Amino acid sequence: MSASGWLWLTTAIMLIGGLGILLTGKRRTKAEELQTVLHGIVPIIAACSYFAMATGQGAVILPFHTAAAPIDGTRIFYFARYIDWAFTTPLLLVSLAYTAMHAGSKRTGAIVGIVLADVVMIVTSFFFGASEIPSLKWIWFLISCVAFIGVYYVIWVSLMQANHEERDDVQTVYRRNAMILSVIWLIYPLVLLVSPDGLYVVSDTAAIVFILILDVAAKVVYGFMSIASDTKITDRDL
Amino acid sequence: MSASGWLWLTTAIMLIGGLGILLTGKRRTKAEELQTVLHGIVPIIAACSYFAMATGQGAVILPFHTAAAPIDGTRIFYFARYIDWAFTTPLLLVSLAYTAMHAGSKRTGAIVGIVLADVVMIVTSFFFGASEIPSLKWIWFLISCVAFIGVYYVIWVSLMQANHEERDDVQTVYRRNAMILSVIWLIYPLVLLVSPDGLYVVSDTAAIVFILILDVAAKVVYGFMSIASDTKITDRDL
Ligand SMILES: CC1=C(/C=C/C(C)=C/C=C/C(C)=C/C=O)C(C)(C)CCC1
Ligand SMILES: CC1=C(/C=C/C(C)=C/C=C/C(C)=C/C=O)C(C)(C)CCC1
After folding, report:
1. To the nearest whole number, what is the mean pLDDT of chain A?
2. Residue A69 has what DSSP assignment?
3. Is the CB of A219 within 6 Å of ligand 1?
């Protein structure tokens, strides 16, 4: 399938996934309503970004210089991804934070902290993707990774701590969601490293396919799983 | 008056309106303070955007292709508007949501939902404005309208529901504000449809004048009215 074929397919999956979550998600309590809305809107934002990329609007062609010059001297930079991520990754983390602190009072500092670390991660990674000078590109990559460690810190230390005061089933769900999210998200920098935005050792289409699998896993599959476990938590609340 | 004359005039109106709301708005309760701050900051953000447009920084010239070719093959795309709207429309909706749920506990999901639907509406409408290919332009327009329906849904269903538990005077104010906002906002897509960003059937200056009337109504006039009715609600609270 062509690059744009894959992008169209993902647009459809995201749209259907998002609407599916919005329509099937329950809203019996305020907490449950928030989870449904967050997880439903994330794939819809992604659908807009994939639509832009599929129609050629969300990308520009940049020069690509390399000693080995494996390609023809240019690469396609799909900048729409980074705009998508700037909105959707904070929403996914807010949803995780609300799961961590399900019943207890919310530690606003931890939520603001994780969102800001995440926004720094994505904005600096945009400069990574956009950079043409390798030295600068890799400095941005490093800065982004440091911010990513900040995100992990809040997930595994601050939110974990707050989560210890919750009911047993809430703790189990939080630890499971935190683990799945941490693993899926960790694959992103590895894929971007070898993609055309990084070292360009895999083709444009291969990078698109890798990233779409990650995106569908991180947004749609993880979304449905989160919503399902949140429904069980809410069942016990009521 | 020239296009830039109108833009300067609006810069002044927004600045004076915003400062007027900030200086005259009361802050006796936390709720009242929030309303004053929200409605005061909205026109100040708009003043920045109008300043950028008046000085020629908030606009670019794009090619304009049409069968009839009524103009000279280009149009001025005032992108600063969309940046302004991306910040100010969520603030106006948050203010409306806090009026809806004046005394009761806040449905976070509804607030997050309306803000996200609104941000999707504005971000996709930016692509509408920026697009040069008509078919894509109109798809973005449609997507933006669907998000707009999401905004209406939260106003007239979710928030309305929450509002039913409030005091009578709060219900009256909410319904009135929701109605005024819904009507003013509905005119935006109609004006943008015929503006240079859309079909280009009215001139650049005419579009500027239509939009400035809407912007002053939606931000300054609506702001002063909101603040006045909120003062009455707070009078009864105290
Ligand atoms: C640290 C790091 C990165 C991390 C990206 C991540 C973690 C993205 C997650 C995206 C998600 C979850 C999207 C969909 O929901 C980049 C940008 C690859 C490159 C620079 C270093
Ligand atoms: C649905 C839709 C639109 C709606 C715009 C609105 C509703 C703007 C409101 C702006 C306000 C209220 C600004 C100042 O306060 C656009 C972008 C015209 C075009 C695409 C379709």
Report:
1. 93
2. -
3. yes
